[in-house]
Amino acid sequence: MNCTEARASIAAYVDDELGTLECSRLDAHVRRCGACQRERSQQVFTSRELRRELTRFRAPARLHRRVRGATHRGAEPAPAWWRRLVAAPLAPVAGFAFAALVSGNAYFLAALPSGEERLADNVLDSHLRAVMSGRAIDVVSSDQHTVKPWYSGKLDFSPPVSDFAAEGFPLVGGRIDYVERRAVAALVYQRRKHVVDLFIWPAAGSRESAPENLARRGYNVVHWTQQGMTYWLASDLEASELARLEALLVTAPPSM
What we know:
Layout: H1 3-14, H2 20-32, H3 34-53, H4 61-72, H5 80-111, H6 115-133, E1 139-140, H7 144-150, E2 171-179, E3 182-191, E4 194-202, E5 209-216, E6 219-226, E7 229-235, H8 239-251
Antiparallel strand pairs: 1-2, 2-3, 3-4, 4-7, 5-6, 6-7
Helix pairs in contact: 1-2, 1-3, 2-3
């Protein structure tokens, strides 16, 4: 993918209209092209701000009544004797149909994934795209004082960065990734031959949350909120090993 193709695809990416393959191709190009990276970051940021700040208007009740009146004005009401004749035998059928409809909708709504599950899937998709593309790292360094400044000017926040090489989880670099159309910091750790991604972005509120583990498609995901930041870990590591890295991150001193 060249710059022309990439810039033509960015709008579709922001609107979640690209398939997995096209997302992977765009991600691979953006990681090696600073101009397209800035363009995508700007469009993602603009889209997020518009969704948050735009004023929404609700139609007044009078307009609703006028529309309903206009759509039913041409319909001739059935004679009363005909309505009684038809309604009597069909009442039980309508009751059963209504009950089935309610039960079906309740089942459908219960089967829908929660917001947390959808976010976990988005985080895991970003992790898998990076690993499968072979370009999981934009800045290659085990030095937190090199990785942290690299994000300056590329994100609207400064992510905390720590190295845990002594504990068996060395920092190997970082990149900019996208989760639910927002640019996030992705720190890359290694555990033997396993890649572990730590996604970080500012939390929506001030409330902190304890770490929670999720299993998704054979992978493990851990998330929590701490000191104004949201953290998501994703890897094919065993859950117990991923929990060790999570504990190190939770207790790590603030990075300078």
